[in-house]
Amino acid sequence: MRMPGTALACVIALAATFVSSLHGGPQLLYALLLGVAFHYLSHEARTKPGIEFCSRAVLRLGVGLLGARITAAQIAGLGWETALTIIAALTTTMLCGLAVGQCLGMTRAQRILSGGAVAICGASAALAISAVLPREKDGDRFTLMVVVTVTVMSTFAMILYPLIARLLHLPPELAGLFLGGTIHDVAQVVGAGYMLNHETGDIATIVKLFRVSMLTIVVIVVAAAFKKSRERALVGMTPGRTPIKQALVPWFLWLFVGMVLLNSLGALSAPLQAGLNDLSRACLVAAIAALGMKTSFAQLARAGWRPLALILIETIWIAGFVLAVILLRH
Questions:
Q1: Across residues 111-124, what is the average pLDDT?
Q2: Sign of CA dihedral 108, 111, 114, 116
Q3: Rounded to the nearest 5°, which phi and psi values hold at 136?
Q4: How far is Cα of residue 59 from the mean position of the Cα atoms in its chain?
């Protein structure tokens, strides 16, 4: 029965939301830390099915509903120079992660997960990409390590990057490109942009949403690259058993694309769009709480320094790349 575990994840998500609204700070990180505190309940027969349900099905629903934030007009309004800059930054960051991660002895799945999280939209991208990767022994623990690290770094970037933009006297267009093209999470991009001025905040948000829209393409590519590995993992590679066939494009990506199309056509009213955005956020917070319950502080500590080093290098790379392009344009 899924109800007890699902209800538990929802209660932790509500607690994290309350703490975030009361004291500020990243809601997803609070949900993760509170979830880890209830790790012992992930082994209980009553709560385990619901926790698994939230960490997978609810997670996918939350990612799919992210598309309600984006319209084709927003993407088209960026201009080709900005779009190419973001695509190049995303691509080179993921390549940087693959190369550096290999030197650090990490698996291909781990390198892609960390690179995608930094390049696209932080915790949300990490969760979406992990959903199409084959299950590994320490997969959930590594995913949580990525979520924690990119959330913390995104919070630091929200404070530091506006100072850099001021120091370089960047106009709103370029400051928005810098903030929206480099900070990991949407909430921190919004905070950093409007910290400077309203125009910068608007541009940074649209640039960030363009990065979020790239999530569909990246997840499809990752799903195709790991399709056979994922199918083998589902049967435990038991001899004599036929691999389970899976769709190349997961259902939540179809939902994501559908939301973008509906929003672009004006079929989503403002209240409905706000409601879908809130529902998406709620699903992601509940999923993070469930993922937190599936691990422990000791397990996170055993992940070692390599994931931290990799994500730090990727963060420095994407910030340096976008800033170099901006300085050339400025």
A1: 89
A2: negative
A3: -115, 165
A4: 11
Single out the residue of 124, 283, 143 nearest to residue 211, CA to CA.
124
Nearest to 254, CA basis, from 220, 209, 214: 220
The residue whose two tokens read 């991208």 is 125
**DSSP code of 24?**
-
Using alpha carbons only, give the angle 203, 208, 214 rounded to the nearest 5 degrees.
135
- 10 Å CB burial of residue 126 (0-12, 13-18, 19+) is buried
pLDDT digits (tens, 9 = 90+) for 12-56: 999 999 998 888 777 877 888 888 888 888 888 899 899 989 887
Q: Which are the contacts of 222, defined by CB distance < 8 A and separation ≥ 6? A: 112, 116, 129, 132, 133
Each residue's pLDDT tens digit, 167-214: 999 999 999 999 999 998 876 787 788 788 878 887 888 888 888 888
Query: What is d(CA 135, CA 61) in angstroms, rounded to the nearest whole number?
Result: 19
Cβ atoms within 10 Å, residue 168: 14
Token pair 């790239």 is at which residue? 214
- Provide DSSP, 74-141: HHHTT-HHHHHHHHHHHHHHHHHHHHHHHHTT--HHHHHHHHHIIIIITHHHHHHHHTTSPP-TTHHH
Long-range pairs, 246-250, Cβ under 8 A, ≥24: 248/220, 248/223, 248/224, 249/220, 249/223, 250/60, 250/131, 250/132, 250/219, 250/223
Q: Is residue 240 classed exposed, middle or buried when 0-12, 13-18 and 19+ CB atoms within 10 A define those classes?
A: exposed
Domain boundaries, given as residue ranges, for the chain: 3-329
Q: Token match 């995303």: residue?
A: 90
> What is d(CA 37, CA 16) in angstroms, rounded to the nearest whole number?
12
Angle at Cα 88 formed by Cα 86 and Cα 94, nearest 5°?
Answer: 100
Integer angstrom CA distances of residue 168 from 55, 137, 172, 323: 42, 46, 12, 10
DSSP single-letter state for residue 184: S
